[in-house]
Structure prediction request, 175 residues.
Amino acid sequence: MSKIKKKRVGFVLDMTPLVDITFLLLTFFMFTAKFRSESENQQKFTIKRPQTTQDTAKLPDKDLVMIKVGIDTVSNDTAFYLSMVNEQDVAKLAEAMMALEYPGATERTALFKITDSTWLGKIVEQARMINPQAKFAVDADRRISYKWIDIAINEMRKKRATSFNFVTDKKGASM
Prediction:
């Protein structure tokens, strides 16, 4: 005997609200998710930057050694120009450079033109010995390459003149 199959009672399931809720949840999680890049996942350190303020310090009127880095208009070559502010220091520096047999040094030399980094190191050392509390300032032409600034900083560092100022123009000042 064959079995009599019962007639199935059908029911209808409306999928529209379920699909609506699924897409609403999907868009919600997409908008609130924070994705990480590969570089953030690989970074195992943090960098804490120092907080700074604008420096409005003026250069001192005395006890100053000025190193200017500029382009000589005659020879069209880059050179360092070192000078001191105090009259007594200028005279002592001229005597010291004459003792070291610096070419062109006389008793009245107030500005030394230096084209060699070894002479720059020697003159920075002499300036520090003449006036140990003198502050250094570097004034450079914007047209020169950074390597000249790097040479000046390295020579000052070698002679332990590690605290110095850069001379700059204010923003918006006419050139």
Remarks:
- The mean pLDDT is 81.
- The first helix runs from residue 16 to 32.
- The helical segments are 16-32, 38-42, 87-99, 117-130, 146-158.
